[in-house]
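Filed under: proteins

Residues; backbone shape codes:
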Amino acid sequence: MMPVMIIFDVDRTLTRSKLPANSEMVKALSELLATKRVGIISGDSLSILKRDIVSLLPVESDFGNLFLLPTSGAALYVWKQEDWHEVYAEILTGEDTSKIGGMIRSACEETGLIDLSAPSYGERIEYRGAQVTLSALGQQAPIEEKEKWDPNGSKKRALRDAIARLLPEYDVKTGGSTSVDVTRHGVNKAYGIRRLSEHLSIPISEMLYVGDALYPEGNDEVVGETGIATRQVSGPDETLQIISEYSNG
């Protein structure tokens, strides 16, 4: 199948964890945009997607073919009139964010996995409008520290399970290598794909999803609900190989 649109995860798919896209990836994405519609979906905020990927693309890139779905698909932004415009955003209320933040703190204490009073690499609990994200070591933690803290992902999954028990009315998913994302119930990457399909009038059967965590309990697993075709990757190098397959047609 030759997809009309390709949707990419970010962390460990387009980039190494919390690092900007490298020059090879930026060039490959720009070439892909010349022939394909491209979606980028991530637990990151819009500002981070802009900083780490979009701002690095050559100015001649076809931004009209690029669609951004930050906060795990809880929002969609499109390029028009030389700027990014919101199509939708499932913004959490102040009551939501207060409750979620409190329960995240309770889960950290309950599990004993995170001492919120200890120094961290930036904010540990970040309010992103449509999503609240717990980053175990802080948003700016070096990748080496993340890999050392939770090499097999067991701590992240334990935190997710503890938070989910306290917040059954919300969606609680693992995010990046040491993060957990909380959104409104039913608002996740599958939701984002469905909304993108509706917005563009492109059937999901004509889309491809590329991600590093399509396995059970991985943060990309939920996209399988949509029936979208998928490609599992081990990291950006494998993603580059997939992009090269589709850049000319």
